[in-house]
Fold:
Amino acid sequence: MATLNRRFRARLAQLDDRGDVPGWVLITLMTAGLVAAIWAVASPTLTDLFSEAIASVTGA
Structure:
């Protein structure tokens, strides 16, 4: 039983994914940065596009 317990603990240690958390945090931050940069560039165009669409629907 002790051997099985040691094998089980060794296998659990191999499956530990906590070391990959900084990678996911970096990916999330980079994605948020890209969205913010694209939004900053495209915001005036998107605002105009939305306003024109609403105006054409409402007839204003």
The CA atoms of residues 20 and 26 lie 10 Å apart. Residues 21-58 form the longest helix (38 residues).
